């Protein structure tokens, strides 16, 4: 039963109204009393503020529950009324007993506790908020782009609605502790008197007990139940990894503590979005921009233009790009396509930009005719600048490139192919000058890094080396 209907009256609804009807009534009332439509009169401003304050409380499910129970959401007033309920019941919890001896600084005396006997305790002296329930929801980049609705089942601990958490239809005062929740013992040794107190084992500190005939049939006298609820989680288009979807007041109403089960104000259910399979080709940048880290194009298209396709865009569409002839694509060049990125989280009808980093696929080899044609075409183009050799090029040292890709981080001695070739040719030239005439009939074929040399080629090679040496 609702304790105060004042906020409901402001919005013109009944206490049992649904969230959708409450929102609808709020919009109608806000439009009706908006200051812009009432000449900015003081009465309209006050009324509009009352409507906004009422919906701020009733629109929040957790605050609405507190208001329905206590008629206010002020923390001080709620704590005072909870303390009054606590004193009226006359019970004491183990947490309150601890706080009595050691002070509230330990933070353990602020909850209502469900005892082991199954009876529910009296209301707490101070209302405390329970922990939030956090869950991670994995979504693909395509799902974050287009949005979706996910059904998520949650098992939580809630108060029994049949007995309102009391454990039964009627609670009786515990005779073992006279409703105090604690039992005191006194021991006298001569002139020394020792007194100590402990939590009542019969009522577990609640001060009340529920008879078997009055036990709640729904919760079995525990005062709470394990409940399974299905939530519909809306993933809005444009949400990013790390975004949160929060359901206020949907966490546990009863939590475990070292002193047993304690009733709390329910926390929130917070769902954090995670990317299921982090895409290697796409990266989200800024609010809604998207970077395609690698798009392959062939050499001809990068130089002469053509058509390139993006087959894995998060929208699911096949994207066709036209490379304009003359728009040369350098390896690693980054180009932009406007409004082809991710949707904006605040306005899904607006899109960010798509940035594309191009990777040019060079052929491993070219035909001689192709090389000649390309060279002639580039020489004839005035836009192409060729590098001229330096003035001292005649006396330079010649080398050739190697296709061997060694590991730069491995401390292994490596002799370049060109160096090996020079050393081997030097050995061949030296051996030819000291060779005897009777070796002409022997097999003089030899293997170099460049291939197999015949007798005539070897003689010509050695003749050239000898001439150069002279």
Automatic annotation (TrEMBL):
Residues 408-447 are annotated as: Disordered. Keywords: Metal-binding, Repeat, Zinc, Zinc-finger. Residues 6-71 form the J domain. PANTHER family: DNAJ-LIKE-2, ISOFORM A-RELATED. One of its GO terms (biological process) is protein refolding. It comes from Eremothecium gossypii (strain ATCC 10895 / CBS 109.51 / FGSC 9923 / NRRL Y-1056) (Yeast). GO terms for cellular component: cytoplasm; cytosol; nucleus. It comes from the Eukaryota. Residues 413-427 have a biased composition (Basic residues). Residues 147-228 form the CR-type domain. A zinc finger (CR-type) spans 147-228. SMART domains: DnaJ. This is AER427Wp. GO terms for molecular function: Hsp70 protein binding; protein-folding chaperone binding; unfolded protein binding; zinc ion binding. The keyword Zinc-finger applies.
């Amino acid at each position: 039963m609702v304790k105060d209907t004042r906020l409901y009256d402001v919005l013109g609804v009944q206490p049992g109204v649904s969230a959708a009807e409450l929102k609808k009534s709020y919009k109608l009332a806000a439009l009706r009393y908006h200051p812009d439509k009432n000449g900015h009169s003081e009465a309209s401003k006050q009324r509009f503020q009352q409507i906004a304050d009422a919906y701020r409380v009733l629109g929040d499910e957790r605050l609405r529950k507190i208001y329905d129970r206590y008629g206010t959401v002020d923390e001080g007033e709620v704590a005072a009324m909870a303390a009054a309920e606590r004193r009226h019941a006359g019970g004491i919890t183990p947490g309150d007993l601890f706080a009595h001896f050691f002070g509230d600084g330990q933070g353990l005396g602020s909850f209502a506790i469900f005892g082991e006997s199954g009876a529910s305790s009296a209301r707490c002296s101070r209302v405390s908020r329970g922990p939030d329930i956090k869950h991670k929801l994995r979504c693909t980049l395509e799902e974050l782009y287009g949005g979706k609705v996910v059904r998520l089942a949650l098992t939580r601990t809630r108060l029994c609605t049949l007995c309102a958490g009391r454990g039964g239809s009627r609670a009786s005062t515990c005779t073992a502790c006279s409703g105090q929740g604690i039992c005191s013992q006194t021991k006298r040794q001569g002139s020394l008197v020792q007194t100590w107190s402990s939590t009542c084992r019969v009522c577990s500190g609640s001060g009340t007990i529920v008879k078997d005939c009055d036990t709640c049939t729904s919760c079995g006298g525990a005062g709470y139940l394990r409940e399974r609820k299905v939530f519909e989680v809306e993933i809005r288009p444009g949400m990013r990894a790390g975004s949160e979807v929060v359901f206020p007041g949907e966490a546990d109403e009863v939590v475990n503590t070292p002193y047993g089960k304690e009733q709390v104000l329910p926390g929130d259910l917070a769902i954090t979005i995670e990317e299921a399979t982090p895409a290697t080709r796409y990266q989200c940048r800024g609010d809604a921009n998207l970077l395609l880290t690698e798009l392959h194009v062939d050499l001809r298209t990068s130089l002469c233009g053509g058509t390139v396709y993006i087959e894995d865009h998060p929208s699911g569409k096949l994207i066709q790009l036209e490379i304009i002839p003359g728009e040369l694509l350098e390896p690693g060049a980054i180009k932009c396509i406007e409004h082809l990125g991710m949707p904006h989280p605040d306005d899904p009808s607006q899109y960010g930009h798509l940035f594309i980093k191009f990777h040019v696929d060079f052929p491993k080899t070219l035909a001689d005719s192709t090389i000649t044609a390309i060279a002639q075409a580039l020489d004839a183009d005035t836009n192409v600048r060729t590098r001229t050799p330096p003035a001292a090029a005649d006396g330079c040292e010649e080398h050739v490139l190697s296709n061997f890709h060694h590991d730069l981080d491995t401390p292994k001695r490596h002799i370049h192919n060109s160096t090996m070739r020079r050393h081997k040719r030097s050995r061949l030239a030296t051996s030819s000058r000291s060779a005897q005439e009777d070796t002409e009939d022997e097999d003089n074929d030899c293997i170099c890094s460049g291939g197999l040399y015949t007798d005539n080629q070897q003689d010509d090679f050695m003749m050239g080396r000898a001439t150069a040496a002279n």
